[in-house]
Design goal:
By secondary structure, the protein is an alpha+beta fold. The chain has nine helices and 20 strands. The longest helix is centred in the last third of the chain and has 32 residues. Bound molecules: zinc ion.
Length: 385
């Protein structure tokens, strides 16, 4: 027998009592069917409800051929009458986000003459796919109109039109429908076939915020949040921007320009620093007697990208050079074309990544620097014999 869907009659119903019509156990998973239920089964892009039934946890809910199956944490006996309570915080969040999706999708589809070809409600954001391109500016215009519709507190009404009435009705639908069709109407925004649970008027959506518009297949994928999620998102982002602005000694609205200035300054300093390092390397090289066999230099604050140039400068005086830098980076330069052999000689005692040519190798080497210098010098002395 088909389960009576209390959530369709009243989406705000959180508690109920019902008799267990069927109780099954499959490989340690317990499922029960009730005469009637307020638990929404996963479907139409909306996740299943969770909650408590007869004192045990409801982990998942699915509909199969009109029967709603509740996956529960412990077995419950057939014939028993049980009390159920849905996790209202979770459900109301889905209701706000599902209704927000209808408002936004309805406005997008009527404005651009496109279809909504995908919908997923995640625990962080909801995503909607449309088969038309959409710019960020267009999406922001849609968001503005959606938030205006929210302010107007438009009733969200479910109805079950007759087949004849359906024929004359223009409504959105993601798939071919048969049997009794549930139509959800939001005057001026959307008419759509939907089995989900919704808030009773758009005011309860509170706000929608589009977070991203990405190209997807021949159209776009939009990420969005509504309701409490959107308000919390705004709160978090306000915290982030205020913290960033404080660090930059800027007003929040000046933060992007201030970040740009810091990045420019950073780039300039980086360039100057590299130039100074080159000069120092040349001076260090001048101090090395011509024809020196081995040179080892540890420069723990020098970034990997600047090591080559130092090794080149030192390599003009010394035959085999190793320079180590920031984050365990290294470069070995060999005027005797022994760079790889020298690197291999170190492999026994150190964990090494990277490679290169016989003239120069570079990468990451982990281990104690004094020991590294000792072994490198020993290996370089050896290759010259
Ligand atoms: Zn829907």
């Amino acid at each position: 027998m088909e389960t009576v869907k209390l959530y369709e009659q009243d989406a705000y119903r959180t508690t109920f009592s019902s008799v267990i019509e069927d109780s099954i156990s499959e490989k340690g998973i317990f499922k029960i069917a009730l005469r009637e239920t307020a638990f929404y089964p996963e479907g139409g892009g909306q996740p299943a409800d969770q909650g408590v039934l007869g004192g045990v946890k409801v982990l998942d809910v699915h509909e199969k051929e009109g029967v709603i199956w509740h996956t529960v944490s412990e077995p419950l006996p057939k014939g028993a009458v049980v009390d159920g309570e849905i996790d209202w915080v979770r459900r109301y969040d889905f209701m706000q986000n599902h209704s927000g999706e209808h408002v936004v999708s309805g406005i997008i589809c009527s404005t651009f003459g496109c279809s909504n070809v995908g919908f997923h409600m995640g625990s962080d954001v909801i995503t909607m796919d449309f088969n038309t391109p959409l710019t960020w500016e267009q999406a922001m215009e849609i968001e503005h109109r959606a938030n205006e519709a929210i302010g107007r507190q438009i009733p969200i009404v479910a109805s079950y039109p007759s087949p004849k009435e359906l024929e004359d009705l223009t409504y959105r639908s993601k798939k071919e429908l048969s049997g009794r069709v549930r139509i959800l109407s939001i005057d001026g925004c959307d008419i759509c076939a939907c089995c989900g649970t919704h808030v009773k008027n758009t005011g309860e959506i509170r706000m929608v915020k589009i977070l991203s518009v990405q190209n997807y297949k021949s159209g776009v994928r939009i990420s969005m949040v509504s309701g409490k999620r959107a308000i919390e998102d705004y709160g978090r982002k306000h915290e982030y921007i205020t913290a960033a602005a404080r660090l930059l000694s800027a007003k929040p609205e000046e933060t992007p320009a201030a970040v740009e200035r810091v990045l420019d300054e950073n780039g300039r300093l980086r360039y100057e620093m590299a130039e100074l390092r080159r000069r120092i390397a040349r001076l260090q090289a001048q101090a090395i007697p011509e024809g020196t066999k081995v040179c080892f230099l540890d420069e723990p604050s020098v970034p990997a990208r600047d090591l080559r140039e130092i090794a080149n400068a030192l390599g003009e005086r010394a035959k085999n050079v190793m320079v180590t830098g920031e984050n365990d980076s290294y470069v070995i330069k060999s005027a005797q074309n022994r760079a790889r052999i020298l690197l291999n000689a170190l492999k026994e005692n150190f964990s090494i990544q990277g490679g290169g040519s016989e003239q120069m190798v570079q990468g990451v080497i982990k281990g104690e620097r004094e020991e590294l210098e000792r072994l490198f010098r020993a290996a370089a002395e050896k290759v010259q014999e």
